[in-house]
Amino acid sequence: MKIGYPCINLSIGCTTNSTFRLKNYSERNLIEKVNNNLDCLQKILEFNLKHNLLFFRMSSDIVPFASHPINKFNWQKYFKNRFEEIGNFIKKYDFRISMHPDQFVLLNSPDKKIVQNSIKELIYHCEVLDLMGLDKTAKVQIHVGGVYYDKKESIKRFVRNYQQLPAMVKSRLVIENDERLYSIIECLSIYQETGIPIVFDYFHHSCLNKGETYLEGINMALKTWQKKDGLMITDYSTQKKGARTGTHTEHIDLKDFENYIQSTLYLDFDIMLEIKDKEKSALKALKILKKWRR
DNA sequence: AGTTGTCAAGCTAGT
DNA sequence: ACTAGCTTGACAACT
Fold it and tell me: CA–C1' span, A151 to B7, in Å?
């Protein structure tokens, strides 16, 4: 079991998300920013290694405008060696890596243009992982998408569009239960049509479920992961007090997390902590993990 | 030097 | 009709 946090480290003082405005697009700008982002990624991974946080979600912003039509630059070739170096570091120390494209990636949109843009964006994410030389346990995680007034039809559309994806995307893509639209049960119906593994999101499941407990939910998701996919990935967070339903907490709820760990000792999976204070909570979570596991 | 409106992209629910 | 929230800040023009 590995534990990690997404995209941003708050104590190092660098970011992998540096970018520029579209109107300022130039190859020079792009190269400068990607160099900066990759340097920072390396630093974050070194920090994580030192602290035994071996699961990391890489930012989608490493290559700004990667899938935008303005970008004709062969960044894949230009940064090949740098990606490979970082990939070697990841493999040497046995990190688990994932990525999470943002809310604009919608495979089940009725709008063909949106689907096309989404596929381009997915290809970009998978290219990064391929360039790093990571195996298919490095996953790209998305939500099912919108409902568009007809959930059944929208699920069908997801399945149809999934089947059209290039193999390099299919082999990495996983879906996650969300907090408002698609519960774990509905993800399972997509799994049955596609074989796509399901990320179990503990917090989202608490917001939206069909009566199954989180232990039932996590066991349902577990069955969708094959050996080639690596350990099941799960997301963990809790509700921010006083905020609207679905808002992630600022700091980890240690009591809830310890209960979660205690109740799942018989399972093996990786945990991504979607908590706003990032590595601070991840380090606390790791302590609890060590108390209960080995 | 610090503040603040805006930034490629979508959807939903709440105000 | 507008906007917070999503996984989330960073840029750049302005004071």
Answer: 31
